[in-house]
Amino acid sequence: MGEEQKMAVEQKWVPDKAEAVIRQLRDVISARVVLDAAGEIEEVHILTQSERPPKQMVRDVESALMAHLGIRVDHKKVSVAQVQGTTEKFAPTRLRVSDVSVSLNDSRAQVKVRLTTGGMVYEGVANGHNSTTGQLRQVAAATLKAVEQSHGIEGSLILEDLSAGGLLAGRNVISVAVNLVAGHSEELLVGSALVKQDSWKAVVNATLDAVNRRLSIQSSEG
After folding, report:
1. Which of 47, 88, 123, 206 stands the most exposed, by the fewest C-beta atoms within 10 Å?
2. Which pairing describes strands 108-117 and 217-218: parallel, antiparallel, or unpaired?
3. Is the pLDDT of residue 36 over 90?
4. How far apart are CA 71 and CA 14, in angstroms?
């Protein structure tokens, strides 16, 4: 791949990932990142419903881009537009379970999880041992990969633990612990879901429940 082709690829994914990171910030409604001819960030435009000072929002953007992507942006390139006098609640992105599939090959298993939102489909794939517990852990891992893909934060969500033996009010419950890694910091996130008919979908929903408060994602039964 030549230098021009590499630059074209970089110019495509850098804005997408930067915008996804900025949209995770509190009170941010939308974000747009503009690159110059050299592929460097030239402008960052943010629409927010926050009443916090724009300077604070700019600092949040600078910190988030550095922590998640290692990108340093000049605060002078960040513009903040605030929506005033509105009580409208902007709904977070809703990721829905599209389907979960498991392929078995002797002692190995491959799990594919597809999540959908706004007409887009995000797929995560995980491989591991073919055991009941192993399959459930792979479902959770594949779900995290799909979530990372939807937010442009690959490698930031790590499955720490999964429990499928819990009972609550006589119902089976699956609990998932996820480690969110951002730069040099880590945050443990925990979620759970009732097992209705499908244990695999329960794992997906428990995993989404673990990350939804942090990444503004709402899980939904498919």
Report:
1. 88
2. unpaired
3. no
4. 10
Q: Which domain holds residue 34?
A: 3-82
CATH number of the domain bearing residue 63: 3.30.300.30
What is the radius of gyration, based on Cα positions, of the chain? 19
Assign 45 to helix, strand or coil: strand
- Tens digit of each residue's pLDDT (9 = 90 or more) over 37-78: 887 888 888 877 766 778 888 888 899 888 888 888 888 888
pTM: 0.58
60-66-67-69 Cα dihedral, nearest 10 degrees: 120
Q: How many domains does the chain have?
A: 2
| Alpha helices per DSSP H over the chain | 3-23, 54-69, 132-151, 199-215
Report if residue 87 sits inside a domain.
Answer: no
d(CA 67, CA 37): 25
- Encoded tokens for 189: 């996130």
Tokens 């922590």 belong to residue? 67
Say how far apart CA 98 and CA 220 lie, in whole Å: 10
Task: Clarify whether residues 76 and 37 are in a common domain.
Answer: yes
Q: What angle do CA 134, 132, 165 make, to 5 degrees?
A: 100
